[in-house]
Amino acid sequence: RKEGYPHFMLKEIHEQPRVIGDTIFGFSKDYEAAASTLASSGNIFITAAGTSFHASLYFSLLTARLAGKKVIPFISSEYESYANLANKEDVLVAVSQSGETIDTLMALRSFKERGCKIISLTNVIGSVISRESHLPVYMKAGPEIGVAATKTFTTQLTALTWLSSLVSFYTGKIGRDELSEIKGRIMKLPDLATRTISRSEGWARRLSQVISSRHSVYYLGRGLGLPIALEGALKLKEIAYVHAEGYPAGESKHGPIALVEPGFPVVFVSIEKNLERKLVGNIEEMKARGAFTIGIFGEQSELVSRVDERIIVPSSDELLLPVLETIPLQLLAYYAAVAKGYDPDKPRNLAKTVTVE
Ligand code: M6R
After folding, report:
1. MF terms per GO, please (predicted)?
2. pLDDT, tens digit (0-9, with 9 covering 90-100), for 166-194
3. Potential cystine with 331: which of 17, 110, 190, 204 (Cβ 3.0-4.6 Å)?
4. Distance of CA 148 from the midpoint of ligand 1 (Å)
């Protein structure tokens, strides 16, 4: 039931504070077992499709940063190119909200045949991916009806932030005190997500009028901002049918910038303070070509005055910004779809769960 919301997608965006809280409350001993397995494993691979892949890429970047551990991310339909690298002492993390995506399941089976340990992160207890893994862990997003993944993505990010922090603990990079301090920070997410939603709604509705009339939009980020930029682009193209590309900001001048002309919207996602100096350059390059620049920033960002439009989410904590900065991007895509008269819950050509390879 939509409980008064015009669409499931909007209802699910608004449920995020609660289900992020449920996910945090559900951090169990299973997360600890998964993290200690990861900390002592050979190579770590992480695989998923679509939005779940963006969460996986985030985990890989965060674990390099927090634990100094290499995690190899790959898109699950490409598993044949990676399976030969797998050995008995390695671990594969399979991420899928439904737990039923065939590509991710095939990747899981092929790594399992090679003797790898399988950890899964799904939203559905008893789903095939969770059943076939050695160590299933779960987000607690509740059923997601909208085809566009929203609350399952932010709960994946929350769960993977905690998993990465635990890996950092089990590899000896941080101690118990620091681990509890991180947990305390993560626990602020539900309240901050509520404030982000109320701050973003009017902004997204207004900006969607511009975005929905354009043919193409770029979403650029660096470091931890990249997976969030990729996700923003996927949401827009999936439900509003506006061509959108997510790109590493630095890479944009190696091709994509050729398309930029006056009025072309470019969204910049900034998470890491120490990468902002370089993002300034990327913003200026786009402005020099007449781009319409939009910033998704945390508090204390130094980029605020550099862009034409901005939203500032209510935190400067780099561990929390990925979840918070996702929310305005979800709302922007939602209102762009509505402005164009499309039903965001039922995008054309797409199924909620893809069961054909
Ligand atoms: O159920 P899964 O997380 O395995 O699904 C993976 C993708 O099919 C899914 O994330 C898809 O990209 C979404 N519709 C994106 O909003």
Report:
1. carbohydrate derivative binding; glutamine-fructose-6-phosphate transaminase (isomerizing) activity
2. 999 999 999 999 999 999 999 999 999 99
3. 204
4. 7
